[in-house]
Amino acid sequence: MKLTAIVERRIIYSVLLLAVALPLIFPIGWTTEVSDYTRIVYELVETTPEDKVVIVSFDYDPSTMTELQPMAEAMIEHAWKRNQKVIATALWPMGVQMAEQAFTKVLLDYPEKKRGEDFVNLGYKVGGMVTVQAMGRNLMEVYPTDNQNTAYQDIPMLKNVRRLKDVAWISSLSSGVPGIKEWMMVARDNYQVPVTGGCTAISAPGFFPYVNEQRQLYGLLGGLKGASEYESLIGRLGSATTKMDAQSIAHLLILVFIGLGNYRAFRNKRRQNS
Amino acid sequence: MKAGLLIFLIFISWGLYANSFTAMDSPWDDGKAIILNWKLSPMTRNVQIQRITDSENIVTVLNTTLPEGEFVDSALEVNHEHHYRLIAQFDEDTLSLETTATTREQWFYMRKLGFLILLVIVCIAIIYYIQSARRGKEFYIRRIAGLDSMEEAIGRATEKGRPILYVPGISDLDDIQTIASLTILSHLAERSAEYNTELIVPCRFSMVLSAAKEVVKEAYIKAGRPDAYKAENIFYLTDDQFGYVAGIDGIMLREKPAANFFMGSFYAESLILAETGFATGAIQTAGTAQAHQLPFFVVSCDYTLIGEELFAASAYLSKDPQQLGSLKGHDFGKLMVIILIIVGVILEIFGISVLKDFIAGASS
Amino acid sequence: MKRSLPLILAFLVGFVVILSEFIPHRPFNQIVSTLEQWFMIISGFAILLGQISLIRMNTHKIVNKLPDWQYYLAGLISFALMLIFGILWGMQETPGLLGSGEGISSWLGAKPFDYLFTNAYMPLSATLFSLLAFFIASAAYRAFIIRGLESNLLMITAVIVIIGRTSIGTMLTGWLPESMQFWHFPILADFIMEYPNSAAQRAILISAGLGIVGSSLRIILGIERSYLGGEK
Q1: Domain span including residue C169
Q2: Interface pTM (ipTM) of the complex?
């Protein structure tokens, strides 16, 4: 029986849906190995002294939150564990809500952390790379208030933070432009602030070359796997860890599809020859 | 007796230890930073550094327990003398040290020297080849299948009476890929105006929308078909990345364009766009300098412009000798990079890091 | 004049911005800082331009009852709802024109804007991104077909990376002794990503970088002007 392209596609989609859904409903509990890319990110946060102020930039929107939100939560938790103070910024409009959700989630485990003293959400600013450049010169000019309308100068944790150079590290969780690249080009290259971050698995190969000897990027969390590795390093059983089972099964299924595709191509070729 | 000896040793080490606190202007910068260095006895409990402003206002710039370290006080007034006080607390004593330094703005970022030299060489080469082209020298440019296919795509759309979809990427106008994309759009719009084929351009950013409207309108005027220009076909969808993708997918499934062009900067959405287009059976051409999205386009599109081909497109399509000359300049740049890589590798093998440090200085 | 003014502006601004990259002294940094602020202000206003275009385009299709006009109506209603809720009751901690809407918030469990954001916008966005998984599967099914040496190598590499990036890879070769650790799937996958992949990516990046320099120079010098809508 010869299947049309549409039917073939529908079969592939249906099987994949099952393969992803089942492990989410019945978790298997597989573990993954921690890659060097993730370990470098972890070391950066781990070795930053207490009381330092850091930036986590939410450069994504809800569409990619499955991969990036666990990274945000894990990095905030790690920073708080190390008593660092977290500034949330957003180069994407919806990043503000993503930041609020991440803080709310991690606050459940760290109820003692206070807005303005341990964390602040400065909100969204339009302009992408130009905004980051302006932040490098003067943060207060770019963000006169936080998202609660508190004046910048009235936020205790920002007392000594006037420009990007005053923060210990910047993490951009990015699903496109503007994102990691803009932070790297401005904050890292112009102001020598360590820049790290995370991105969707589909974009990760493009950022790996920047994790080099010069530390253009201090490590990279690539997709859900990167997030789950980070969770395992800080000892957190987050959503990324539980979702990795589904991803592993989906990858295996793709291998099966590749095998089937080759079998079909081989059969067609033999039929043509005969 | 032991306690006495211990106190004596502490006293000696205290006396031998030269507590220092210095301030100096951060060199080769915009004159807004001062580097503060302090070195105190290891028995220091707490260190507080204060900036004493002219009006005698005191601002604490650092509070730390480290007995030794460096701190950069930034965002300061330019060309101005700044006074600092360090207050160190020991078990029972307190030590106060003061220092001053003047910020000086410089005329050059010395660490960017290597970067400047490379940039100047590449720019001179490009300008030289442009001048050669102006003097009449002809340059060969290899065939770029993705751009040659433009005629085929427009032809197919015209035959079927279906529109052409042009997606200028997901970046704003400050990304050079978007500008490159708009230059291709200009050529495509001109051809589609000649063939009287409808052109749909959904935009993610308002700035891109304004530019795209202008580009297409001018192209239609240039083709002598201003009446065929439809302003409503160039429109804004949404700033939201996947909302934009949903909108384009909807257009592809409803309008069934005969040809899709994805030119510009693309991220995670590339495969969703290209696969939907593939499913509708459209002839697809993509081009991006986002190397990590290229595999997805290669799989699902008929033609793909890889990296620099996107930037060469305008020169290729216009056949303008000056623009073709500038492409020769790129090739010179590539040759220079290849030589630098080979020399750099050889030098590194012999443990000489001069070249690497010189170039790396630009980004360190 | 209409064509010359933008070209002169592009030349002047481009040249000053490049210079300021190397000169930290005034007035260059101040000029660039001012230009950045202008860009941000223009971008802010441009958002309005986009909204107007959106409303105009959708209204045109609805009024003229063009095919599938219902979709455009749904889009316009969704846009209006989010806008009105945001203006009336604000979002999160920010109040709107009618305050924080305690009554409606207690009924919905959140402010109307936040409620729609969490329960409609977020799932819809995530659903669209998740389509990627399906498309990757169908694309892989078509793409990794062995035809010759190159496609063979491509498929072997893909299989190693796919296995290495999952928990299965850890299990399959976890038993290998220390001396053979290189052949452990996750390590092998990392090696492929770190060296062959990075080398190819860098080559494309470098040539694209040179393309960017060339394009920028053509724009600054006014040789490339089709982005303004016309040739020389």
Answers
A1: 144-232
A2: 0.84
Please state which of the ranges A124-133, A165-174, B179-188 shows the lowest mean pLDDT.
Answer: A124-133
* Residue among B171, B265, B363 minimizing CB distance to A214: B363
Non-local (6+) Cβ contacts of B351 within 8 A are none
> What are the residue ranges of helices labelled H in B144-223?
145-160, 176-195, 206-222
Peptide bond into A178 cis (omega under 30): yes
Domain A36-246 has CATH 3.40.50: yes
C170 is written with which tokens?
């850890």
User: DSSP letter at A158?
Assistant: G
Lowest mean pLDDT among A41-45, B91-95, C77-81: B91-95
Whether C47 and chain A come into contact, CB under 8 Å, resolves to: yes
Q: Which of A161, A210, A162 is nearest to A182 (CA)?
A: A210
Using a CB-CB cut-off of 8 Å, the residues of chain C touching A244 are: 166-167
Architecture of domain B18-102: Sandwich (2.60)
Question: Whose CA is closest to C131, among A13, A200, A199?
Answer: A13
Chain A CA closest to residue C45? A126
CB contact under 8 A, C33 and A137: yes
Residue ranges of chain B assigned to CATH 3.40.50: 150-263+270-304
B227 CB near a chain A CB, below 8 Å? no
Residue C34 lies in a domain: yes
Is 60 exceeded by the pLDDT of residue B354?
A: yes
Residue C49 lies in a domain: yes
Provide the CATH topology of domain B150-263+270-304.
Answer: Rossmann fold (3.40.50)
Q: How far away is chain B from the Cα of A234, in angstroms, using its nearest Cα? A: 26
Identify the chains in contact with B, defined as 3+ C-beta pairs within 8 A.
A, C
* Partner residue opposite B330 with nearest CB, options C68, C129, C210: C210
Counting the structural domains of chain C, the total is 2
Which of B186, B210, B181, B180 lies closest to B199, judged by CA?
B186
Q: What sign does the CA torsion over C5, C9, C15, C16 have?
A: positive
* Axis-axis angle for helices C28-63, C69-89 (nearest 10): 130
Q: Is residue B266 within 8 Å of residue B240, measured between CB atoms?
A: no
Q: Do A250 and C94 touch (CB under 8 A)?
A: no
Whole-number pLDDT of residue B364:
44
Tens of pLDDT along A186-231?
A: 999 888 899 999 999 888 988 988 998 888 999 999 999 999 999 9
- In a domain, residue C136? The reply is no
